[in-house]
Amino acid sequence: MGWDEKELLEKAKAGDVESFEILIQAVRQKAYQIALSYLKNQEDAEDALQDSLLKIYRGLSRFQETSRFSTWVYRVVVNTCLDHIKKNKRQKDRILSFSGEDREENPFDAVSMLRDESAEPERHMLQKEKTQIILACLERIAPSLREVVVLRDVQGFSYGEIAQILDISEGTVKSRLSRARQAVKEMFFQIMGEKGEQK
Amino acid sequence: MTCDTVREKLTEYLDGALPQEEMKSIREHLLLCPSCNREYLALSEIKELLGQTFKAPLPEGFDERLHEALLQEKQINRPVLPLKRNAAFYRKYAAAAAVFLVLLISVPAAFLHESKNDEGLREDLPAKAEMLLANGKQESAAEEEGLVSNENLSQPSDQSREQTEKRQAFSMILLKAGLTGTCTREGMGRLYKEAEAPGRKRRRRKTGKIPLHRIPPSGQGDPAGRIRP
To answer: What interface predicted TM-score (ipTM) does this complex get?
Structure first.
């Protein structure tokens, strides 16, 4: 932790909003994506992120500084998202599907989240389809596996960071990650194979 | 390195989380083993596809909304001085105590005031009676002349006079009790009875026992002529 971050933390702990806003500037984007990966809905993700950041602002005095501030923020975001899911059973109805009808009704459009849109139309279409299938596969695996694979492959956290965020051991992170990737891979290629046969 | 060992460590290999030597051994194995290489390529594709999901930017205006929420939070959680909190805490108790004190002082004072007034009435009764008689004469004269106004309707009626008399009697009881020291329940009861029926004497309650002076010595007859067995 650099001096600046410490200074900002001290000021934020004293209630300085501006210092707190500078502190969270580097983490809010990633935190939003984590929330989105849990809640699958932009509005809910924004609400959860705001709730999380307000909780963090309120509870700054309890931050021990034994871990990184960013890791603490992500942990609070994950817990808040889990609370939101518990409270809001509507999430069950928002399970992503790769069927066309569901995609149109679903406010969370995976296609809009694609990074590479510059490729030629055919390749772009195939990429979109694959991404939708991946999201569908993610929805079908156990939440405990899903959160690990999202934090690693979507957000790029290290094993140690994931262990801290989810409060599990690094060994558990590795085993869950391996099982999650394996499960998604099997489902993905099965669906792709079925689609290929249909064509 | 066997295929099983390689597949066990493929996840960590994908993430570059293995020591240099192990990374090198697996790389060499993948070059030689098409089955393990296929598995590796499949997992790589999944990892890459996953990396392309959930990459939405923050919604527009998020920072502004958060700023507002933080300012509100700061206002709500503004530290409160303990003195203020204590004052608020004790204020309701102080109000309750004040009400209690007022009641404690005013109720007996009202009784005293009333009994004092009654005493005054008792003392000035002859004079007031004379005044009332004089007023009555004046009123009757005015009635005859047809000059009685509506104000006279507010004068005490028979009922209110009766109430005043009762109040006088009650204050007399209190006064007498105070003077004679008969402030017990029985004493007060006796005074009430006397006030209700001043001429009536108190009778001793019959207990069924014969008074000692009326019991004749053994073998003698009853002085009243009655013989006891």
So the answer is: 0.74
